[in-house]
Amino acid sequence: MQRVCVVCGDAFYIADSAEYEDDADLGECACPCGGEEFGVAVGFAFRGDGEVRWVSVGLRCLKDGGLGVYADWKIDYGPTAHLLEMA
Ligand SMILES: [Zn+2]
Asked: 42 and 70 in contact (C-beta within 8 Å)?
């Protein structure tokens, strides 16, 4: 999953997304209201040993404030501390 800054246009991959870019078929996110600009939050769910198990990306539409989880994926490797620096 990639985020693109609405001000400067810079694009960044979220967490470990860049490792899967070759297999990805990227599409743009859109809110049911038609809005295509969002505030972004990345959430992490942890395993019992403190390693990241799931990454979830939530978006808030800047037009109507609608909230949604637009992507999540499982992390099946470790260590994972670096992911927390890559949101
Ligand atoms: Zn909206």
From this structure: no
Give the count of beta carbons closer than 10 Å to the beta carbon of residue 74.
9
Q: How far apart are CA 71 and CA 52, in angstroms?
A: 16
- Give the pLDDT confidence of 28-48 residue by residue, as tens digits: 999 999 999 999 999 999 999
- Exposure b/e, 22-53, CB count within 10 A at least 16 = b: eeeeeeebebeeebeebebebebeeeeeeebe
Sorted by where each begins, the domain ranges of the chain are 2-85
CA 58–ligand 1 middle distance (angstroms): 13
Q: Which H or E run contains 2? A: strand 2-4
Residue 64 CB-half CA count within 13 A? 10
Q: How far is the CA of 54 from the centre of ligand 1 (A)?
A: 25
Instruction: Indicate whether this model's pTM tops 0.85.
Output: yes
Distance from residue 57's CA to the centre of ligand 1 (Å): 16
